[in-house]
Amino acid sequence: MVNQLIKTGKLAVDGIEYDIEPVLVCDLKALVKLLGLYNCFHPKAYCPWCSVCIDNLADFGIEDWPLRTKEEWDKLATEAERRAMKSAKDTFARNKGIMGTPLFDFAMDHIIPCMLHCLMGITRKLFELLAAEAHNNPTVEEEFLAILASLKISLIQKTESAHTWTEDLGE
After folding, report:
1. Which domain, by its residues, includes 78?
2. Statement to judge: residues 107 and 168 lie in one domain
3. 3-state SS record for the chain
4. Domain shared by 76 and 144, yes or no
5. pTM value?
6. Is 5 within a domain?
7. Residue 162 pLDDT > 60, yes or no?
């Protein structure tokens, strides 16, 4: 029924037909399941929406990446589902961002990701970059800790049972 609404863009209520433009808005966990995505919030996963290349990800001279077309999305979903072994399916999905066929046929530009999760992902990435920059750089580390102290946030200091925040980042 939902796919029919998406396809026709029409809704009849009490004999009156309305033109509609369906969009999908939900939290990230639901979006992943509904669209057959790999855990796109995983730090090593590729973007399921665009054709971003990992080699050019940090090239800020590139203004935007084109969204994948419905045909590209469908082809990748078909390829993902052909993988019989879970490990092969996971590897393909991680490299392409798509794990299977979506339940709904929304166009890519009619899917609105949850802004909360987008902001959380951006904040986490910025924190990781700052932590990496602060590691073994006393000036940056002191300023960073001063900012946290002004916000009344304290990091766990290293003890025998706790790791430092840089160790949690794999440093």
Report:
1. 25-113
2. no
3. CHHHHHHHCEEEECCEEEECCCCEEECHHHHHHHHCECCCCCCCCCCCCECCCHHHCCCCCCCCCCECCHHHHHHHHHHHHHCCCHHHHHHHHHHHCECCCCCCCCCHHHEEECHHHHHHHHHHHHHHHHHHHHCCCHHHHHHHHHHHHHCCCCCCCCCCCCCCHHHHCCC
4. no
5. 0.54
6. no
7. no
